[in-house]
Amino acid sequence: MSLSTADTQPSAEQTINATSKANDAARLPGARTHYSDFFSDIVKRMKPSPIHSLLHLEHHIPKPISLLAGKPNPAMFPFAGSMSWTSRDPHNPEKIETLTMDEDLLKLGLNYSETPGLLQMRQFLEEMQEDEHGRLKEEEGWRVTVGPGSQDLISKAVTALLNPGDSMLVESPTYAGIMPMFRQLQPEFICIPSDAHGLLTDKLREVLKGWPSDKPRPKLIYTIPYGSNPSGFSATLERRTELLKLAYEHNFLILEDDPYYNLYYGSSPRYPSYFSLEKSLGLLDTAPDTPKDLLRVNTGGRVIRFDSFSKVLSAGLRLGFVTGPAPVLDAIDKQTSAASLEPSTLTQTIALTILRSWGREGYKAHTTNVAAFYRSKRDTCERLLAQYLGKDGLATWDTPEAGMFMWFKLHLHPGMDVESDTEDFIRRKAVEKGVLALPGSMFLPEGGKSAYVRLSFSVVPENVLEEAMRRLRALVIEARGEA
Question: pLDDT at residue 475 above 70?
Answer without folding.
Answer: yes
